[in-house]
Amino acid sequence: MYLSFRRRLLKRICLATCKICILVFVVIFVVLPLIFKYSYALQKGILFLTFITYPPNLDLKRPEKSGLYATRNFYVTYRDQEEDFDVDIAVWHVLPNDLVRRFGKELQIDEATLSNMTAPEEVRDKADALSRQQSAAKYREIENILHRANLNLNDEATQKELFEQTLKASSNDIVLYLHGNTASRGASHRVELYKMLRSLNYHVITLDYRGYGDSTNISPTERGIVYDALAVYQYITSVSNSPVYLWGHSLGTGVATHLLSLLTDMNLPGPKALVLESPFNNIREEICAHPFSKLYRHLPWFDFMITSPMYENQLRFESDHHISEFRQPVLILHAEDDNVVPFKLGYKLYRVALDTRGKAWGPIEFHRFEKTSHYGHRYICRAPNLPEIVVRFFRTYRDESY
What's the pLDDT score for residue 135? Predict the structure, then answer.
Protein backbone atom coordinates (compact mmCIF):
# COMPACT_ATOMS: atom_id res chain seq x y z
CA MET A 1 0.00 0.00 0.00
CA TYR A 2 2.88 2.33 0.82
CA LEU A 3 4.47 1.62 -2.58
CA SER A 4 1.18 2.29 -4.34
CA PHE A 5 0.81 5.62 -2.56
CA ARG A 6 4.40 6.50 -3.43
CA ARG A 7 3.82 5.71 -7.11
CA ARG A 8 0.67 7.86 -7.20
CA LEU A 9 2.55 10.72 -5.52
CA LEU A 10 5.44 10.50 -7.97
CA LYS A 11 2.99 10.38 -10.88
CA ARG A 12 1.26 13.52 -9.64
CA ILE A 13 4.59 15.28 -9.13
CA CYS A 14 5.71 14.37 -12.65
CA LEU A 15 2.38 15.50 -14.08
CA ALA A 16 2.57 18.80 -12.20
CA THR A 17 6.18 19.30 -13.32
CA CYS A 18 5.22 18.70 -16.94
CA LYS A 19 2.37 21.17 -16.69
CA ILE A 20 4.67 23.79 -15.18
CA CYS A 21 7.27 23.21 -17.90
CA ILE A 22 4.64 23.53 -20.62
CA LEU A 23 3.29 26.70 -19.01
CA VAL A 24 6.78 28.21 -18.74
CA PHE A 25 7.46 27.31 -22.37
CA VAL A 26 4.20 28.86 -23.53
CA VAL A 27 4.81 32.05 -21.50
CA ILE A 28 8.44 32.50 -22.60
CA PHE A 29 8.22 31.41 -26.22
CA VAL A 30 4.63 32.29 -27.17
CA VAL A 31 3.07 34.82 -24.79
CA LEU A 32 6.08 37.13 -24.48
CA PRO A 33 6.71 37.23 -28.26
CA LEU A 34 2.99 37.92 -28.78
CA ILE A 35 3.15 40.82 -26.34
CA PHE A 36 6.25 42.10 -28.15
CA LYS A 37 4.50 41.83 -31.53
CA TYR A 38 1.60 44.03 -30.51
CA SER A 39 3.39 46.45 -28.17
CA TYR A 40 5.08 49.32 -30.02
CA ALA A 41 6.27 50.72 -26.69
CA LEU A 42 8.00 47.44 -25.81
CA GLN A 43 9.63 47.26 -29.24
CA LYS A 44 11.07 50.76 -28.79
CA GLY A 45 12.11 50.00 -25.23
CA ILE A 46 14.07 46.91 -26.24
CA LEU A 47 15.67 48.64 -29.22
CA PHE A 48 16.70 51.94 -27.62
CA LEU A 49 17.27 50.77 -24.01
CA THR A 50 16.91 54.31 -22.66
CA PHE A 51 16.27 52.89 -19.19
CA ILE A 52 19.90 51.71 -18.97
CA THR A 53 22.07 54.49 -17.58
CA TYR A 54 25.72 54.53 -16.56
CA PRO A 55 27.94 55.60 -14.92
CA PRO A 56 25.78 56.29 -11.85
CA ASN A 57 25.27 59.83 -10.54
CA LEU A 58 26.67 61.42 -13.70
CA ASP A 59 26.24 65.20 -13.86
CA LEU A 60 25.85 65.80 -17.60
CA LYS A 61 25.65 69.56 -17.09
CA ARG A 62 29.25 69.50 -15.86
CA PRO A 63 31.41 67.67 -18.42
CA GLU A 64 34.52 68.46 -16.37
CA LYS A 65 33.27 65.84 -13.91
CA SER A 66 33.80 63.32 -16.72
CA GLY A 67 37.36 64.53 -17.31
CA LEU A 68 36.50 66.88 -20.19
CA TYR A 69 38.09 70.28 -19.57
CA ALA A 70 37.25 73.20 -21.87
CA THR A 71 33.91 71.65 -22.82
CA ARG A 72 30.58 73.42 -23.16
CA ASN A 73 27.25 71.85 -22.23
CA PHE A 74 24.27 73.37 -24.02
CA TYR A 75 20.93 72.56 -25.65
CA VAL A 76 19.69 72.80 -29.22
CA THR A 77 15.93 73.34 -29.33
CA TYR A 78 13.88 72.76 -32.45
CA ARG A 79 10.28 72.12 -33.44
CA ASP A 80 9.44 68.57 -34.48
CA GLN A 81 6.95 69.41 -37.21
CA GLU A 82 5.54 65.91 -37.57
CA GLU A 83 5.01 65.37 -33.84
CA ASP A 84 4.18 69.07 -33.27
CA PHE A 85 6.24 69.68 -30.12
CA ASP A 86 9.56 71.26 -29.16
CA VAL A 87 12.57 69.01 -28.55
CA ASP A 88 15.58 69.98 -26.43
CA ILE A 89 18.72 68.13 -27.51
CA ALA A 90 21.56 68.09 -24.97
CA VAL A 91 24.97 68.69 -26.53
CA TRP A 92 28.65 68.80 -25.53
CA HIS A 93 31.20 70.80 -27.51
CA VAL A 94 34.75 69.66 -26.73
CA LEU A 95 37.48 72.11 -27.77
CA PRO A 96 40.51 70.76 -29.67
CA ASN A 97 43.74 70.56 -27.74
CA ASP A 98 45.66 73.07 -29.84
CA LEU A 99 43.12 75.76 -28.95
CA VAL A 100 43.23 74.75 -25.31
CA ARG A 101 47.03 75.00 -25.34
CA ARG A 102 46.86 78.39 -27.01
CA PHE A 103 44.35 79.81 -24.53
CA GLY A 104 45.02 77.54 -21.55
CA LYS A 105 45.65 80.35 -19.07
CA GLU A 106 42.55 82.31 -20.06
CA LEU A 107 40.45 79.12 -19.98
CA GLN A 108 41.76 78.48 -16.46
CA ILE A 109 43.24 75.09 -17.34
CA ASP A 110 45.81 74.05 -14.75
CA GLU A 111 49.43 73.43 -15.74
CA ALA A 112 49.27 69.73 -14.96
CA THR A 113 46.42 69.23 -17.43
CA LEU A 114 48.18 71.29 -20.10
CA SER A 115 51.42 69.38 -19.69
CA ASN A 116 49.58 66.04 -19.98
CA MET A 117 47.97 66.86 -23.33
CA THR A 118 49.24 64.37 -25.83
CA ALA A 119 48.83 63.79 -29.53
CA PRO A 120 50.70 61.73 -32.10
CA GLU A 121 53.91 63.66 -32.82
CA GLU A 122 53.22 64.18 -36.53
CA VAL A 123 49.70 65.48 -35.84
CA ARG A 124 50.86 67.78 -33.07
CA ASP A 125 53.74 69.26 -35.08
CA LYS A 126 51.59 69.95 -38.13
CA ALA A 127 48.83 71.48 -36.01
CA ASP A 128 51.27 73.72 -34.15
CA ALA A 129 52.84 74.84 -37.46
CA LEU A 130 49.40 75.64 -38.86
CA SER A 131 48.48 77.53 -35.70
CA ARG A 132 51.63 79.66 -35.97
CA GLN A 133 50.91 80.46 -39.62
CA GLN A 134 47.37 81.59 -39.02
CA SER A 135 46.81 85.29 -38.77
CA ALA A 136 46.47 86.54 -35.22
CA ALA A 137 43.42 88.42 -36.44
CA LYS A 138 41.51 85.11 -36.71
CA TYR A 139 41.80 84.70 -32.96
CA ARG A 140 41.26 88.34 -32.02
CA GLU A 141 37.57 87.90 -31.22
CA ILE A 142 38.36 84.89 -29.01
CA GLU A 143 41.02 86.93 -27.22
CA ASN A 144 38.65 89.87 -26.81
CA ILE A 145 36.14 87.60 -25.07
CA LEU A 146 38.74 85.94 -22.85
CA HIS A 147 40.37 89.24 -21.83
CA ARG A 148 37.19 90.92 -20.65
CA ALA A 149 37.13 92.33 -17.16
CA ASN A 150 35.21 90.17 -14.68
CA LEU A 151 35.08 87.29 -17.16
CA ASN A 152 32.83 84.47 -15.92
CA LEU A 153 33.43 81.29 -17.89
CA ASN A 154 30.49 79.64 -16.13
CA ASP A 155 28.02 82.15 -17.55
CA GLU A 156 25.94 80.47 -20.27
CA ALA A 157 25.83 83.52 -22.54
CA THR A 158 29.61 83.95 -22.30
CA GLN A 159 30.17 80.26 -22.97
CA LYS A 160 27.91 80.39 -26.02
CA GLU A 161 29.72 83.42 -27.43
CA LEU A 162 33.17 81.98 -26.73
CA PHE A 163 32.64 78.45 -28.04
CA GLU A 164 30.79 79.58 -31.13
CA GLN A 165 33.59 82.03 -31.85
CA THR A 166 36.10 79.16 -31.69
CA LEU A 167 34.04 77.36 -34.35
CA LYS A 168 34.05 80.46 -36.54
CA ALA A 169 37.66 81.56 -36.07
CA SER A 170 39.71 78.37 -36.00
CA SER A 171 40.56 76.21 -38.98
CA ASN A 172 40.04 73.04 -36.96
CA ASP A 173 37.72 70.47 -38.48
CA ILE A 174 34.63 69.26 -36.62
CA VAL A 175 33.52 65.73 -35.74
CA LEU A 176 29.82 65.21 -34.98
CA TYR A 177 29.53 62.00 -32.92
CA LEU A 178 26.32 59.92 -32.81
CA HIS A 179 26.30 57.36 -30.02
CA GLY A 180 24.62 53.96 -29.81
CA ASN A 181 21.82 52.80 -27.54
CA THR A 182 22.06 52.74 -23.73
CA ALA A 183 23.47 55.43 -21.45
CA SER A 184 24.33 58.95 -22.61
CA ARG A 185 26.98 61.15 -24.18
CA GLY A 186 28.85 60.87 -20.86
CA ALA A 187 29.48 57.09 -20.97
CA SER A 188 33.15 56.40 -20.23
CA HIS A 189 33.99 54.63 -23.51
CA ARG A 190 32.52 57.57 -25.43
CA VAL A 191 34.54 60.06 -23.38
CA GLU A 192 37.67 58.05 -24.31
CA LEU A 193 36.91 58.60 -27.98
CA TYR A 194 36.27 62.35 -27.51
CA LYS A 195 39.66 62.65 -25.82
CA MET A 196 41.38 60.85 -28.68
CA LEU A 197 39.70 63.06 -31.29
CA ARG A 198 40.43 66.27 -29.40
CA SER A 199 44.08 65.20 -29.13
CA LEU A 200 44.09 65.15 -32.95
CA ASN A 201 42.90 68.78 -32.78
CA TYR A 202 39.32 68.27 -33.91
CA HIS A 203 36.34 70.01 -32.39
CA VAL A 204 34.10 67.23 -31.04
CA ILE A 205 30.35 67.81 -30.85
CA THR A 206 28.23 65.04 -29.37
CA LEU A 207 24.56 64.83 -28.46
CA ASP A 208 21.96 62.80 -26.65
CA TYR A 209 18.90 61.97 -28.71
CA ARG A 210 15.41 62.45 -27.26
CA GLY A 211 14.85 60.07 -24.37
CA TYR A 212 18.59 59.86 -23.57
CA GLY A 213 20.59 61.74 -20.97
CA ASP A 214 19.07 65.12 -20.15
CA SER A 215 17.47 65.68 -23.55
CA THR A 216 13.68 65.94 -23.75
CA ASN A 217 12.25 62.88 -22.04
CA ILE A 218 10.08 61.48 -24.80
CA SER A 219 10.14 58.02 -26.34
CA PRO A 220 12.58 57.81 -29.27
CA THR A 221 11.73 56.61 -32.76
CA GLU A 222 14.03 56.11 -35.73
CA ARG A 223 12.64 59.16 -37.50
CA GLY A 224 12.79 61.20 -34.30
CA ILE A 225 16.43 60.59 -33.42
CA VAL A 226 17.52 61.12 -37.05
CA TYR A 227 15.87 64.54 -36.94
CA ASP A 228 17.53 65.21 -33.57
CA ALA A 229 20.90 64.60 -35.22
CA LEU A 230 19.85 66.78 -38.16
CA ALA A 231 19.03 69.66 -35.80
CA VAL A 232 22.50 69.56 -34.27
CA TYR A 233 24.17 69.22 -37.68
CA GLN A 234 22.29 72.28 -38.89
CA TYR A 235 23.32 74.17 -35.75
CA ILE A 236 26.99 73.40 -36.52
CA THR A 237 26.75 74.47 -40.15
CA SER A 238 24.93 77.66 -39.18
CA VAL A 239 27.89 78.67 -37.01
CA SER A 240 30.95 77.34 -38.84
CA ASN A 241 32.19 76.88 -42.39
CA SER A 242 34.83 74.34 -41.33
CA PRO A 243 34.62 70.78 -42.69
CA VAL A 244 32.34 68.50 -40.68
CA TYR A 245 32.77 64.72 -40.41
CA LEU A 246 30.06 62.40 -39.13
CA TRP A 247 30.99 59.56 -36.75
CA GLY A 248 28.42 56.94 -35.75
CA HIS A 249 28.88 54.05 -33.34
CA SER A 250 26.65 50.95 -33.14
CA LEU A 251 23.02 52.14 -33.34
CA GLY A 252 24.49 55.56 -34.19
CA THR A 253 25.73 54.10 -37.49
CA GLY A 254 22.11 53.52 -38.46
CA VAL A 255 21.30 57.11 -37.47
CA ALA A 256 24.30 58.42 -39.43
CA THR A 257 23.53 56.65 -42.71
CA HIS A 258 19.86 57.62 -42.46
CA LEU A 259 20.85 61.25 -41.77
CA LEU A 260 23.10 61.39 -44.83
CA SER A 261 20.35 59.90 -46.95
CA LEU A 262 17.94 62.51 -45.57
CA LEU A 263 20.35 65.39 -46.31
CA THR A 264 20.73 64.13 -49.87
CA ASP A 265 16.96 63.86 -50.28
CA MET A 266 16.53 67.41 -48.91
CA ASN A 267 19.25 68.64 -51.29
CA LEU A 268 21.26 70.04 -48.37
CA PRO A 269 25.08 70.05 -48.15
CA GLY A 270 26.25 67.06 -46.15
CA PRO A 271 29.39 66.38 -44.11
CA LYS A 272 32.67 65.70 -45.86
CA ALA A 273 32.92 62.04 -44.86
CA LEU A 274 31.41 59.37 -42.64
CA VAL A 275 32.96 57.01 -40.08
CA LEU A 276 30.95 53.92 -39.10
CA GLU A 277 32.30 52.25 -35.96
CA SER A 278 30.95 48.75 -35.21
CA PRO A 279 28.08 49.01 -37.70
CA PHE A 280 25.32 46.58 -38.59
CA ASN A 281 23.72 46.32 -42.03
CA ASN A 282 20.07 46.50 -40.88
CA ILE A 283 18.15 46.06 -37.65
CA ARG A 284 16.51 42.79 -38.77
CA GLU A 285 19.84 40.97 -39.05
CA GLU A 286 21.26 42.69 -35.99
CA ILE A 287 18.33 41.47 -33.87
CA CYS A 288 18.85 37.92 -35.13
CA ALA A 289 22.55 38.08 -34.27
CA HIS A 290 22.29 39.88 -30.92
CA PRO A 291 23.01 37.83 -27.75
CA PHE A 292 19.61 38.82 -26.32
CA SER A 293 17.84 36.91 -29.10
CA LYS A 294 19.70 33.64 -28.52
CA LEU A 295 16.66 31.98 -26.91
CA TYR A 296 14.29 33.01 -29.68
CA ARG A 297 16.10 33.27 -33.01
CA HIS A 298 15.50 29.63 -34.04
CA LEU A 299 11.77 29.68 -33.35
CA PRO A 300 9.69 29.30 -36.54
CA TRP A 301 7.62 32.34 -35.57
CA PHE A 302 10.61 34.58 -34.71
CA ASP A 303 10.35 36.77 -37.81
CA PHE A 304 6.56 37.00 -37.60
CA MET A 305 6.52 38.04 -33.93
CA ILE A 306 9.82 39.93 -33.50
CA THR A 307 11.47 41.42 -36.58
CA SER A 308 8.53 42.01 -38.93
CA PRO A 309 6.52 44.05 -36.37
CA MET A 310 9.49 46.36 -35.87
CA TYR A 311 9.77 46.91 -39.62
CA GLU A 312 6.05 47.62 -39.79
CA ASN A 313 6.54 50.24 -37.07
CA GLN A 314 9.40 51.92 -38.99
CA LEU A 315 12.14 50.71 -36.62
CA ARG A 316 14.44 49.60 -39.43
CA PHE A 317 17.82 51.37 -39.47
CA GLU A 318 18.54 50.01 -42.94
CA SER A 319 22.12 51.14 -43.43
CA ASP A 320 22.51 48.69 -46.31
CA HIS A 321 19.77 50.64 -48.09
CA HIS A 322 20.82 54.17 -47.09
CA ILE A 323 24.52 53.72 -47.87
CA SER A 324 23.67 53.68 -51.58
CA GLU A 325 21.80 57.00 -51.34
CA PHE A 326 24.65 59.42 -50.55
CA ARG A 327 28.01 60.09 -52.17
CA GLN A 328 30.32 60.86 -49.25
CA PRO A 329 33.39 58.67 -48.55
CA VAL A 330 32.85 56.04 -45.83
CA LEU A 331 35.30 54.51 -43.37
CA ILE A 332 34.12 51.34 -41.56
CA LEU A 333 35.86 50.25 -38.35
CA HIS A 334 35.03 46.86 -36.81
CA ALA A 335 36.61 44.53 -34.25
CA GLU A 336 36.60 40.80 -34.92
CA ASP A 337 35.66 40.06 -31.30
CA ASP A 338 32.58 42.31 -31.27
CA ASN A 339 29.88 40.23 -29.52
CA VAL A 340 27.15 42.89 -29.69
CA VAL A 341 27.28 43.69 -33.40
CA PRO A 342 29.05 40.73 -35.02
CA PHE A 343 31.95 41.51 -37.34
CA LYS A 344 30.19 39.73 -40.20
CA LEU A 345 27.41 42.37 -40.25
CA GLY A 346 29.87 45.25 -40.62
CA TYR A 347 31.65 43.40 -43.40
CA LYS A 348 28.34 42.59 -45.07
CA LEU A 349 27.51 46.32 -45.08
CA TYR A 350 30.89 46.98 -46.70
CA ARG A 351 30.24 44.44 -49.45
CA VAL A 352 26.78 45.89 -50.12
CA ALA A 353 28.30 49.37 -50.39
CA LEU A 354 30.91 48.16 -52.88
CA ASP A 355 28.15 46.65 -55.02
CA THR A 356 25.60 49.47 -54.90
CA ARG A 357 27.45 52.79 -54.69
CA GLY A 358 28.32 54.78 -57.81
CA LYS A 359 31.84 54.39 -59.19
CA ALA A 360 32.38 58.16 -59.16
CA TRP A 361 31.23 58.47 -55.55
CA GLY A 362 33.44 58.74 -52.48
CA PRO A 363 35.41 55.54 -51.78
CA ILE A 364 34.52 53.13 -49.00
CA GLU A 365 37.24 51.73 -46.74
CA PHE A 366 37.14 48.87 -44.23
CA HIS A 367 39.52 48.41 -41.30
CA ARG A 368 39.36 45.28 -39.20
CA PHE A 369 40.85 45.02 -35.72
CA GLU A 370 42.13 41.58 -34.75
CA LYS A 371 40.30 39.70 -32.01
CA THR A 372 43.60 39.33 -30.12
CA SER A 373 43.44 43.09 -29.40
CA HIS A 374 40.23 42.59 -27.36
CA TYR A 375 38.60 45.87 -28.39
CA GLY A 376 35.16 44.27 -28.58
CA HIS A 377 32.21 46.53 -29.25
CA ARG A 378 33.31 49.66 -27.41
CA TYR A 379 37.06 50.09 -27.35
CA ILE A 380 38.36 50.52 -30.88
CA CYS A 381 39.23 54.00 -29.59
CA ARG A 382 42.16 52.35 -27.78
CA ALA A 383 43.77 51.04 -30.96
CA PRO A 384 47.26 52.60 -31.31
CA ASN A 385 46.86 52.93 -35.08
CA LEU A 386 43.41 54.56 -34.96
CA PRO A 387 44.68 58.18 -34.91
CA GLU A 388 46.74 57.55 -38.03
CA ILE A 389 43.76 55.92 -39.80
CA VAL A 390 41.40 58.75 -38.88
CA VAL A 391 43.74 61.64 -39.71
CA ARG A 392 44.70 60.14 -43.08
CA PHE A 393 41.04 59.51 -43.98
CA PHE A 394 39.85 62.99 -42.99
CA ARG A 395 42.78 64.75 -44.69
CA THR A 396 42.30 62.77 -47.90
CA TYR A 397 38.69 63.91 -48.34
CA ARG A 398 38.76 67.29 -46.56
CA ASP A 399 38.77 69.29 -49.77
CA GLU A 400 36.95 66.82 -51.99
CA SER A 401 33.35 67.07 -53.18
CA TYR A 402 31.23 64.20 -54.51
Answer: 56
